[in-house]
């Protein structure tokens, strides 16, 4: 090589080395940014699940308070009707019509009316878009059907049913999986069914309890 070209050659090699280093640094930074973007996306999804859980728990609490108030009102109404029924019973000898009224009033004690069973329902579109709170006791009272029958109908209609505790445990599990990149939103009903089936003692045993 011509001695006059040696400095240029050395300079060119230096530039190539710097270019290679810059390229490697750029790729490393790009991978870092991509990884951070992915992590932030996972955190956003986890935050969405936490927000859903917070809203659902608030709705559960409100409905339980409504049910507690309804139970008190029903009990007080029965306490008022009970002595009236006793009076009518004492008067029953005066006529069959009064006797029939007394029998009616005494046939509906408060403990035969269901109150307080409020559950979380997840529909076919899964989480976080298809979740709500249902008062099974209210539906049972309005339709004059047993609470287990109402729950079975919801399950037949492809709804997953959870108690507050089971729903909280499910959300905790999903948040952990999302933050590790094992799961992404939305979580379909099929995937939720798979998770609950694999964790049957944790998620399913409490679902069918009837208060």
Walk me through the structure.
- The chain is mainly α and 211 residues long.
- It has a domain at 7-61 and 114-203.
- The chain has seven helices and three strands, in the order ααββααβααα.
- It has helices spanning 6-90, 96-106, 136-143, 147-156, 164-179, 189-198, 200-203; strands at 118-122, 131-135, 160-162.
- Strands 2-1-3 form a three-stranded antiparallel sheet, sandwiched between helices.
- A hairpin with an 8-residue loop joins strand 1 and strand 2.
- Helix 1 packs antiparallel against helix 2 (96-106) and helix 1 (6-90) packs antiparallel against helix 5 (164-179).
- The radius of gyration is 33 Å and the shape is rod-shaped.
- Mean pLDDT is 77; it is low at 84-88, 97-110 and 204-211.
User: Strand portion, in percent?
Assistant: 5-15%
- What characteristic shape results from the CA principal axes? rod-shaped
Number of E-type strands: 3
Which range best describes the helical content: under 10%, 10-25%, 25-40%, 40-55%, 55-70% or over 70%?
A: 55-70%
Structural class: mainly alpha
Biggest sheet: strand arrangement: 2-1-3
Cα-based radius of gyration, to the nearest Å: 33 Å
Features:
disordered C terminus; single chain; about 5% strand; about 210 residues; 7 helices
Brief overview:
The protein is mostly helical and 211 residues long.
Please describe the topology of this protein.
Layout: H1 6-90, H2 96-106, E1 118-122, E2 131-135, H3 136-143, H4 147-156, E3 160-162, H5 164-179, H6 189-198, H7 200-203
Antiparallel strand pairs: 1-2, 1-3
Helix pairs in contact: 1-2, 1-5
């Amino acid at each position: 090589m011509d001695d006059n070209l040696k400095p240029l050659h050395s300079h060119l090699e230096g530039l190539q080395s710097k270019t290679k280093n810059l390229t490697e640094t750029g790729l490393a930074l790009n991978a870092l940014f991509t990884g951070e973007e992915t992590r932030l996306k996972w955190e956003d999804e986890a935050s969405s699940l936490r927000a859903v859980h917070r809203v659902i728990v608030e709705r559960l609490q409100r409905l339980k308070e409504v049910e507690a108030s309804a139970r008190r009102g029903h009990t007080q109404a029965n306490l008022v009707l009970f002595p009236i029924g006793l009076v009518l019973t004492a008067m029953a000898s005066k006529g069959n019509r009064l006797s029939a009224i007394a029998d009616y009033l005494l046939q509906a004690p408060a403990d035969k009316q269901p109150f307080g069973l409020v559950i979380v329902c997840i529909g076919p579109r899964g989480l976080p878009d298809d979740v709500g709170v249902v008062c099974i006791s209210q539906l049972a009272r309005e339709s004059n059907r047993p609470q287990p029958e109402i729950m079975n109908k919801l399950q037949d209609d492809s709804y997953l049913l959870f108690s507050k505790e089971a729903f909280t445990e499910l959300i905790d599990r999903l948040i952990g999986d999302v933050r590790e990149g094992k799961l992404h939103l939305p979580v379909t009903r099929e995937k939720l069914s798979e998770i609950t089936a694999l964790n049957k003692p944790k998620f399913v045993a409490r679902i069918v309890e009837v208060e």
